[in-house]
Amino acid sequence: MSTAELSQKYDRAAPAWGDKMRLLGYHDAYLGFLADSAFRSPGGTRVLDIGCGTGAFADAWAAIHGPEQEITLLDPSPEMLRRADATLAKRGINTSRAECLLEDHAPGQLYDTMLAAHVIEHVDDPAATLAEMRKRVSPGGRLWLVVSKPHWCNAIIWLQWRHRSFRPEAVRNHLEHAGWTLEREYAFPSGPPSRTSRGYVAIAI
Ligand SMILES: C[S@@+](CC[C@H](N)C(=O)[O-])C[C@H]1O[C@@H](n2cnc3c(N)ncnc32)[C@H](O)[C@@H]1O
User: Fold this and answer.
1) What are 29-45's pLDDT values in tens digits?
2) Is 123 in the pocket of ligand 1 (CB under 6 A)?
3) Contacts with 53 (C-beta within 8 Å, 6 or more apart), sequence order
4) Which of 44, 100, 162, 180 could join 175 in a cystine, given CB atoms 3.0 to 4.6 angstroms apart?
5) Measuring from atom 12 of ligand 1, which residue has the nearest CA?
6) How far is the centre of ligand 1, averaged over its atoms, from the C-alpha of 75 (Å)?
7) What is the DSSP string of 39-50?
8) How many separate domains does the chain show?
9) Which residue, by CA, sits nearest to atom 10 of ligand 1?
10) Strand partners, 182
11) Full-model pTM
12) Mutate to test the pocket of ligand 1, among 5, 85, 88, 119 (most ligand atoms within 8 A of CB)
Protein backbone atom coordinates (compact mmCIF):
# COMPACT_ATOMS: atom_id res chain seq x y z
CA MET A 1 0.00 0.00 0.00
CA SER A 2 1.45 3.41 -0.93
CA THR A 3 1.91 6.14 1.68
CA ALA A 4 -0.88 8.22 0.09
CA GLU A 5 -3.29 5.26 0.12
CA LEU A 6 -2.44 4.51 3.75
CA SER A 7 -3.01 8.12 4.75
CA GLN A 8 -6.40 8.20 2.97
CA LYS A 9 -7.34 4.94 4.66
CA TYR A 10 -6.48 6.41 8.07
CA ASP A 11 -8.46 9.56 7.18
CA ARG A 12 -11.50 7.38 6.61
CA ALA A 13 -10.91 5.42 9.82
CA ALA A 14 -10.35 8.56 11.93
CA PRO A 15 -13.98 9.32 12.98
CA ALA A 16 -14.34 5.93 14.73
CA TRP A 17 -10.70 5.41 15.73
CA GLY A 18 -10.72 7.06 19.16
CA ASP A 19 -13.82 5.20 20.39
CA LYS A 20 -12.46 1.92 19.05
CA MET A 21 -9.15 2.43 20.86
CA ARG A 22 -11.00 3.13 24.09
CA LEU A 23 -13.43 0.20 23.73
CA LEU A 24 -10.65 -2.26 23.01
CA GLY A 25 -8.64 -1.09 26.01
CA TYR A 26 -5.71 0.60 24.26
CA HIS A 27 -6.24 3.92 26.08
CA ASP A 28 -5.92 2.24 29.47
CA ALA A 29 -3.11 0.04 28.21
CA TYR A 30 -1.08 3.08 27.12
CA LEU A 31 -1.77 4.76 30.44
CA GLY A 32 -0.60 1.68 32.34
CA PHE A 33 2.56 1.42 30.26
CA LEU A 34 3.50 5.08 30.70
CA ALA A 35 2.51 5.19 34.37
CA ASP A 36 4.51 2.15 35.36
CA SER A 37 6.87 3.57 37.98
CA ALA A 38 9.87 1.86 36.40
CA PHE A 39 9.45 3.98 33.31
CA ARG A 40 9.32 7.48 34.78
CA SER A 41 10.53 10.15 32.38
CA PRO A 42 14.03 11.51 33.07
CA GLY A 43 12.85 15.09 32.47
CA GLY A 44 12.44 17.61 29.67
CA THR A 45 9.11 18.68 28.31
CA ARG A 46 9.56 18.42 24.54
CA VAL A 47 7.54 15.44 23.35
CA LEU A 48 6.88 14.09 19.84
CA ASP A 49 4.05 11.59 19.26
CA ILE A 50 4.86 9.90 15.95
CA GLY A 51 1.91 8.46 14.04
CA CYS A 52 -0.29 9.97 16.77
CA GLY A 53 -3.61 8.83 15.31
CA THR A 54 -6.35 10.41 17.42
CA GLY A 55 -3.83 11.16 20.18
CA ALA A 56 -4.38 8.29 22.64
CA PHE A 57 -0.69 7.86 23.50
CA ALA A 58 0.02 11.61 23.83
CA ASP A 59 -3.15 12.02 25.88
CA ALA A 60 -1.99 9.31 28.30
CA TRP A 61 1.41 11.02 28.50
CA ALA A 62 -0.25 14.38 29.30
CA ALA A 63 -2.50 12.75 31.92
CA ILE A 64 0.61 11.56 33.77
CA HIS A 65 3.04 14.44 33.21
CA GLY A 66 0.68 17.43 33.27
CA PRO A 67 -0.24 20.35 31.05
CA GLU A 68 3.21 21.97 30.88
CA GLN A 69 4.31 19.40 28.31
CA GLU A 70 5.17 20.80 24.85
CA ILE A 71 3.65 18.15 22.63
CA THR A 72 4.08 17.86 18.87
CA LEU A 73 1.59 15.58 17.13
CA LEU A 74 2.85 14.06 13.91
CA ASP A 75 0.75 12.12 11.42
CA PRO A 76 0.34 12.17 7.63
CA SER A 77 -3.45 11.83 8.05
CA PRO A 78 -5.08 15.28 8.51
CA GLU A 79 -8.26 13.74 9.92
CA MET A 80 -6.29 11.87 12.59
CA LEU A 81 -4.28 15.00 13.44
CA ARG A 82 -7.35 17.18 13.81
CA ARG A 83 -8.85 14.75 16.32
CA ALA A 84 -5.59 14.34 18.22
CA ASP A 85 -5.33 18.10 18.55
CA ALA A 86 -8.90 18.28 19.93
CA THR A 87 -8.12 15.50 22.42
CA LEU A 88 -5.12 17.38 23.84
CA ALA A 89 -7.00 20.71 23.78
CA LYS A 90 -9.45 19.22 26.30
CA ARG A 91 -6.50 19.07 28.71
CA GLY A 92 -5.63 22.70 27.98
CA ILE A 93 -2.55 21.72 25.96
CA ASN A 94 -1.76 23.68 22.81
CA THR A 95 0.02 21.24 20.57
CA SER A 96 2.20 21.77 17.54
CA ARG A 97 1.11 19.80 14.51
CA ALA A 98 3.22 18.13 11.84
CA GLU A 99 1.12 16.77 8.98
CA CYS A 100 3.76 14.55 7.40
CA LEU A 101 5.67 11.30 7.61
CA LEU A 102 8.35 11.08 10.28
CA GLU A 103 11.09 11.07 7.64
CA ASP A 104 9.86 14.43 6.27
CA HIS A 105 9.72 16.16 9.67
CA ALA A 106 12.54 18.66 10.27
CA PRO A 107 12.14 20.11 13.78
CA GLY A 108 14.16 23.17 14.84
CA GLN A 109 15.10 21.57 18.16
CA LEU A 110 15.63 18.08 19.49
CA TYR A 111 12.94 16.37 21.56
CA ASP A 112 13.30 14.87 25.05
CA THR A 113 10.72 12.15 24.55
CA MET A 114 9.45 10.18 21.58
CA LEU A 115 6.17 8.30 21.64
CA ALA A 116 5.38 5.84 18.86
CA ALA A 117 2.50 3.39 19.16
CA HIS A 118 1.80 0.98 16.31
CA VAL A 119 3.68 2.95 13.67
CA ILE A 120 6.79 0.98 12.66
CA GLU A 121 4.41 -1.76 11.52
CA HIS A 122 3.67 0.41 8.46
CA VAL A 123 7.19 1.15 7.24
CA ASP A 124 9.39 -0.84 4.86
CA ASP A 125 12.55 -0.43 6.90
CA PRO A 126 11.81 -0.28 10.65
CA ALA A 127 15.49 0.10 11.61
CA ALA A 128 15.75 3.17 9.36
CA THR A 129 12.58 4.62 10.93
CA LEU A 130 13.94 4.01 14.44
CA ALA A 131 17.17 5.74 13.33
CA GLU A 132 15.08 8.72 12.11
CA MET A 133 13.50 8.84 15.58
CA ARG A 134 16.95 8.71 17.17
CA LYS A 135 18.15 11.70 15.10
CA ARG A 136 15.35 13.85 16.50
CA VAL A 137 15.93 13.19 20.21
CA SER A 138 18.59 14.55 22.61
CA PRO A 139 21.21 12.11 23.93
CA GLY A 140 19.68 10.48 27.02
CA GLY A 141 16.16 11.10 25.71
CA ARG A 142 13.72 8.22 25.70
CA LEU A 143 11.50 6.40 23.27
CA TRP A 144 8.28 4.76 24.42
CA LEU A 145 7.46 2.31 21.66
CA VAL A 146 4.45 0.01 21.21
CA VAL A 147 4.75 -2.64 18.51
CA SER A 148 2.49 -5.40 17.19
CA LYS A 149 3.67 -8.90 17.97
CA PRO A 150 2.90 -12.20 16.24
CA HIS A 151 -0.57 -13.43 17.37
CA TRP A 152 -3.64 -14.69 15.51
CA CYS A 153 -5.46 -11.45 16.47
CA ASN A 154 -2.92 -9.58 14.36
CA ALA A 155 -3.61 -11.93 11.45
CA ILE A 156 -7.22 -10.68 11.54
CA ILE A 157 -6.17 -7.03 11.83
CA TRP A 158 -3.72 -7.60 8.95
CA LEU A 159 -6.64 -8.33 6.60
CA GLN A 160 -7.62 -4.68 6.93
CA TRP A 161 -4.33 -2.88 7.50
CA ARG A 162 -1.56 -5.04 5.95
CA HIS A 163 0.63 -4.09 8.92
CA ARG A 164 3.64 -6.06 10.10
CA SER A 165 4.21 -7.80 13.44
CA PHE A 166 7.60 -8.16 15.13
CA ARG A 167 9.05 -10.69 17.51
CA PRO A 168 10.68 -9.02 20.54
CA GLU A 169 14.14 -10.19 19.37
CA ALA A 170 13.61 -8.33 16.07
CA VAL A 171 12.58 -5.11 17.87
CA ARG A 172 15.62 -5.35 20.17
CA ASN A 173 17.87 -5.84 17.17
CA HIS A 174 16.37 -2.91 15.23
CA LEU A 175 16.66 -0.62 18.27
CA GLU A 176 20.30 -1.51 18.79
CA HIS A 177 21.17 -0.88 15.14
CA ALA A 178 19.35 2.45 15.21
CA GLY A 179 21.34 3.94 18.11
CA TRP A 180 19.01 3.09 20.99
CA THR A 181 19.72 1.14 24.18
CA LEU A 182 16.78 -0.94 25.31
CA GLU A 183 15.92 -0.08 28.90
CA ARG A 184 12.84 -2.18 29.58
CA GLU A 185 10.14 -4.21 27.93
CA TYR A 186 6.52 -4.16 28.99
CA ALA A 187 3.87 -6.87 28.65
CA PHE A 188 0.37 -5.40 28.57
CA PRO A 189 -1.52 -7.17 31.35
CA SER A 190 -4.94 -7.84 29.83
CA GLY A 191 -7.43 -7.61 26.97
CA PRO A 192 -6.66 -7.11 23.27
CA PRO A 193 -3.45 -5.09 23.93
CA SER A 194 -1.98 -8.09 25.79
CA ARG A 195 -2.52 -10.22 22.70
CA THR A 196 -1.61 -7.81 19.93
CA SER A 197 1.16 -5.63 21.31
CA ARG A 198 4.29 -5.22 23.42
CA GLY A 199 5.90 -2.10 24.93
CA TYR A 200 9.57 -1.09 24.81
CA VAL A 201 11.43 1.78 26.47
CA ALA A 202 14.74 2.77 24.90
CA ILE A 203 17.37 5.43 25.70
CA ALA A 204 19.13 7.47 23.01
CA ILE A 205 22.87 6.79 23.26
C1 LIG B 1 -2.12 2.06 13.82
S2 LIG B 1 -2.25 3.79 13.76
C3 LIG B 1 -1.75 4.19 15.41
C4 LIG B 1 -2.26 5.51 15.87
C5 LIG B 1 -1.94 5.85 17.34
N6 LIG B 1 -0.53 5.87 17.61
C7 LIG B 1 -2.64 4.88 18.25
O8 LIG B 1 -1.98 4.06 18.88
O9 LIG B 1 -3.87 4.94 18.30
C10 LIG B 1 -0.83 4.25 12.79
C11 LIG B 1 -0.71 5.74 12.53
O12 LIG B 1 0.61 5.99 12.00
C13 LIG B 1 0.52 6.89 10.91
N14 LIG B 1 1.70 6.64 10.04
C15 LIG B 1 1.87 5.66 9.13
N16 LIG B 1 3.09 5.73 8.58
C17 LIG B 1 3.73 6.78 9.19
C18 LIG B 1 5.04 7.37 9.06
N19 LIG B 1 5.95 6.90 8.20
N20 LIG B 1 5.34 8.46 9.84
C21 LIG B 1 4.42 8.92 10.71
N22 LIG B 1 3.18 8.40 10.86
C23 LIG B 1 2.84 7.35 10.11
C24 LIG B 1 -0.85 6.62 10.29
O25 LIG B 1 -1.35 7.73 9.56
C26 LIG B 1 -1.70 6.28 11.52
O27 LIG B 1 -2.38 7.40 12.05
Assistant:
1) 999 999 986 566 667 89
2) yes
3) 10, 14, 17, 21, 75, 77, 80, 84, 117, 118
4) 180
5) 51
6) 6
7) G---S--EEEEE
8) 1
9) 119
10) 202
11) 0.95
12) 119
